[in-house]
């Protein structure tokens, strides 16, 4: 609530700007989305959003995104750790490489990955004889989403790791803690709120990802069709209302999940917050 | 437990932090490593703790080589200058940490842990604050938590890296005396690092004066203060004036502590003329800043009684005469 008098000036004007900006760029388009989907009757809406094809698409989108975000949380943490704690030749290059998935057009990433994992690709020709099929499978979708999500975890965890004094690890060691204990009881509790944020960002990005996935997934309905692609397919068939209905469902689920994850993250951060002033 | 460092040598890139240092600390002793920043004192302490590996040399505990042992196996309590408390844990959990991470068969029961931690919190006079987070404590309290945490593992040696460095002078003095009492109570071999000569002289059984990665002198506080082995030690342990004098064997420089300087209005044969620039009378002694005819700045320290008798005024011309002074071998003079 706006304090009647505050040392920090400009609450009114900045909040006003924020709300106007958010409304213009986020709320109004989203409201339009819901408005459009509402043009369907109840039964029609249900038919559009709960068709087997749509359900399979949600499952793949959320499942693959979750798996990819999980993989990124693990490897992103290791990557951030290496970048923060060690000085080695080529560190600057590794640091820059992390951001590359941001810059690369997603379609390029998708085509590249498809070429790599296709039956005659560099990696595919070795994996397929082993029974590991990546291209045109849900696994391929996950691989593409992992690629897209790398920077999110690294960039959110990195500053927190930089903020941790190496001394707390030394203190833990001198108290007899093993590396495992030091990680589990000292480092992880300090890092996990940031890790959760990174996970949430990677997850959110993956749910909405389209460009890199369409090439590697093969887009087979019920098997490798992601929800964003289903929306585009509906649009191409002039079924605007159906497309917006699926989009609305996607949006509501994503929003709910993000709200939950952020709540978890805030809980963890609050537990740590006091220590900042140390 | 006794500690011995033999021929410790350590470089960080181009910087040589320690040059073949040898040091022995006896069982139950409280030793200060004293020196300016960059003198290698903290590096030496960290090497003893196993937090740093020496390039050459070895560390012995009770005569047994511990150089290859990792920090976690040395059973050394280490207290950091900036506390290094685990900020997501309560005071109680911080202190209990060393007990909880023990292998299961050596770990005390939950009740045992509670009893031990409470006892330690009483020892550091924080019994009521076990449930607080470190961020809710003052600097002095945090450092006491850090000490309790280090003591919880019943270390054989206690090492403290500038333990009072981040505290204000009042708290520092209190903690200093308190640490001395704890040391006497527990009789644990302790080494602490400081750049504050007063702290070292007041607290330690023996003082190790270090400079440029070397040990300049080891001795009791009285020894290093009254019988400094080198010009560096003399200068580092207190304020000092340097006079150019003519002695029997030619011109020389003489080092004189401010309190060994007489100030008077009468001319004296062995004195020098000087002008009073400032008088600081607030405090147990009176410090007088003077400038000699040669333009050198010197400091004298008078008792309040002397000051009352003399009643020095600013810009007044007086005579200063050293009651005692020291010379050091010229070779050493120009070494720095």
What does this 3D model show about the protein?
Chain A is mainly alpha-helical. Helices cover 77% and strands 0% of the residues of chain A. Chain A has helices spanning 11-37, 42-49, 52-85, 91-103, 106-117, 124-127, 138-163, 166-174, 179-208, 211-217, 227-236, 240-273. In chain A, α3 (52-85) crosses α9 (179-208). The radius of gyration of chain A is 22 Å and the shape is globular. The model of chain A is unreliable at 274-278 (pLDDT under 50). Chain B has a six-stranded mixed β-sheet, with helices on both faces. Chain B has a five-stranded antiparallel β-sheet with strand order 13-17-14-15-16. Chain B is α+β, with helices and mostly antiparallel strands and 336 residues long. Chain B has ten helices and 17 strands. In chain B, α2 (91-100) crosses α3, α2 (91-100) runs parallel beside α4 (139-152) and α3 (110-123) packs across α4 (139-152). In chain B, 38% of the residues are buried. Chain B folds into two domains: 3-235, P-loop containing nucleotide triphosphate hydrolases (Rossmann fold, 3-Layer(aba) Sandwich), CATH 3.40.50; 239-333, Beta Barrel (OB fold (Dihydrolipoamide Acetyltransferase, E2P)).
Compressed to H and E, one letter per element, the order of chain B equals: EEEHEEEHHHEHEHEEHHEEEEEEHEH
CATH class assignment of the domain at 52-165 and 193-272 in chain A: Mainly Alpha
Tell me, rounded to a whole number, the average pLDDT of chain B.
Answer: 89
CATH homology group of the domain at 52-165 and 193-272 in chain A: MetI-like
Biggest interface pair, counts: A-B, 24 and 36 residues
E-strand count of chain A: 0
CATH topology name of the domain at 52-165 and 193-272 in chain A, in short, is MetI-like fold
Low confidence ranges of chain B: 332-336
């Amino acid at each position: 609530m706006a304090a009647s008098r505050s040392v920090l000036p400009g609450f009114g004007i900045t909040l006003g700007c924020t709300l106007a900006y958010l409304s213009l760029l986020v709320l109004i388009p989203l409201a339009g989305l819901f408005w459009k989907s509402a043009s369907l009757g109840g039964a029609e809406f249900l038919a559009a959003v709960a068709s087997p094809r749509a359900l399979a698409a949600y499952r793949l989108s959320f499942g693959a995104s979750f798996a990819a975000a999980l993989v990124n949380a693990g490897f992103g943490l290791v990557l951030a750790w290496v970048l923060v704690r060690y000085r080695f030749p080529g560190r600057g290059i590794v640091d820059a490489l992390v951001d590359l998935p941001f810059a690369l057009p997603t379609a390029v990433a998708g085509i590249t990955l498809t070429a790599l994992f296709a039956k005659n690709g560099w990696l595919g020709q070795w994996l397929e004889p082993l029974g590991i099929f990546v291209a045109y499978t849900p696994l391929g979708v996950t691989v593409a989403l992992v690629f897209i999500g790398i920077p999110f975890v690294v960039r959110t965890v990195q500053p927190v790791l930089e903020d941790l004094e190496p001394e707390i690890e030394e203190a833990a060691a001198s108290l007899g803690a093993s590396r495992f204990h030091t990680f589990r009881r000292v480092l992880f509790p300090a890092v996990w709120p940031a890790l959760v944020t990174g996970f949430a960002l990677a997850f959110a990005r993956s749910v909405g990802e389209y460009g890199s996935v369409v090439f590697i997934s093969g887009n087979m309905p019920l098997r490798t069709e992601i929800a964003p692609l289903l929306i585009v397919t509906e649009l191409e068939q002039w079924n605007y209302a159906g497309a917006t209905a699926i989009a609305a469902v996607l949006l509501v689920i994503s929003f709910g999940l993000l709200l939950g994850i952020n709540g978890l993250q805030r809980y963890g951060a609050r537990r740590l917050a006091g220590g900042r002033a140390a | 437990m006794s500690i011995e460092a033999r021929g410790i040598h350590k470089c960080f890139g181009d910087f040589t932090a320690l040059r073949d240092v040898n040091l022995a600390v006896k069982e139950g002793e409280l030793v200060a490593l004293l020196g300016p920043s960059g003198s290698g004192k903290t590096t030496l302490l960290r090497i003893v703790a196993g937090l740093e590996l020496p390039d050459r040399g070895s560390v012995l505990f009770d005569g047994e080589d511990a150089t290859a042992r990792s920090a976690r196996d040395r059973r050394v309590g280490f207290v950091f200058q900036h506390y290094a408390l685990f900020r997501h844990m309560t005071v109680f959990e911080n202190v209990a940490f060393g007990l909880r991470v023990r292998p299961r068969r050596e770990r005390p029961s939950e009740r045992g842990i509670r009893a031990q931690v409470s006892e330690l919190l009483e020892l550091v006079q924080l019994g009521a604050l076990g449930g607080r987070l470190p961020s809710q404590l003052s600097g002095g309290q945090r450092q006491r938590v850090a000490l309790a945490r280090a003591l919880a593992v019943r270390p054989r040696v206690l090492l403290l890296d500038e333990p009072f460095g981040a505290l204000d002078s009042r708290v520092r003095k209190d903690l200093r005396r308190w640490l001395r009492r704890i040391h006497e109570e527990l009789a644990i071999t302790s080494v602490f690092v400081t750049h504050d000569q007063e702290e070292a002289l007041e607290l330690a059984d023996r003082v190790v004066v270090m400079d440029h990665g070397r040990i300049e002198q080891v001795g009791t506080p009285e020894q290093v203060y009254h019988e400094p082995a080198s010009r560096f030690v003399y200068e580092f342990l207190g304020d000092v004036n340097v006079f150019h004098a003519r002695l029997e064997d030619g011109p020389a420089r003489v080092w004189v502590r401010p309190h060994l300087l007489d100030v008077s209005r009468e001319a004296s044969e062995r004195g020098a003329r000087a002008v009073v620039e400032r008088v600081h009378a607030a405090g147990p002694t009176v410090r007088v800043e003077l400038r000699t005819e040669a333009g050198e700045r010197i400091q004298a320290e008078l008792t309040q009684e002397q000051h009352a008798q003399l009643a020095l005024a600013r810009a007044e011309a007086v005579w200063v005469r050293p009651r005692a002074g020291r010379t050091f071998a010229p070779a050493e003079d120009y070494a720095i």
